[in-house]
Amino acid sequence: MTAMPATTVGQDVHFITFATRDLDAARRFYTGGLGWEPLLDVADEIVFFQVAPGTVLGFFEASRFAQDLGSDDRPPVSGVTLAHNVGDRDAVSDVVAAMVAGGGTVRVAPQEGAFGGVFHAIVEDPNGVVWEVAHNPGWYVDPQGRVSLDGP
Amino acid sequence: MTAMPATTVGQDVHFITFATRDLDAARRFYTGGLGWEPLLDVADEIVFFQVAPGTVLGFFEASRFAQDLGSDDRPPVSGVTLAHNVGDRDAVSDVVAAMVAGGGTVRVAPQEGAFGGVFHAIVEDPNGVVWEVAHNPGWYVDPQGRVSLDGP
Prior knowledge:
globular, 4-stranded mixed beta sheet, alpha+beta, 35% strand, 10 strands
């Protein structure tokens, strides 16, 4: 390891991008099932959704995803989850129902989580992207967008 | 597929969480290398960083990650990238240097990307999380946080 450079890196994620084997199933899930509006949708290539101020979630056709990384394999999605928090326990079940209607698969039904004091469910999207849907009583976002994990 | 429920799901990602085999290496990379401030850091369990208004990136010790999903395996990270955009091409190289100093591995040196009109590099963090560092001339975020991919 060399000496730390003077440059520091802005603490921002601008894109989260998944290798997507079935782009049409992703479209059905996110637009039809969840009711989301694409930021950009390119046939046979990619669909983008804005998911936070300044942050975009992308589903990138798997062979192009691989090509962009200089590889030939079409990797499965593994070792990552996305989470969506809701205001109460009933809303966890409502979101799970919407995900199932859109083509998702319930992996863990709504229940107490092992970590973090959450009530949650785990649902896979049609391409194996794992979503946690959670009610976390400590989750709080102030008007400037700053997150707190133990309330206001 | 059943009828679409009346519920739609807020278009928000609140957590992005990676299975992390070496949590100390993740700490060195993100705090020492990139200069980021943790939102919460729990020894042997997880380190969180806020990366957008209302959105948190988490590195979760791999066996606990698996347990939280009701599994025993410690999955490798695959099929996902995060991207960080910067204002010009030189800044791509600066961020890559910071990532290497923090323990990252260059997978694609700074060059023209195959997609999206970007100049980019690809760097893996010490746990295999793939970062794209990019200068994208079309990337624009308005004062309300709305993203445009073709400028203001």
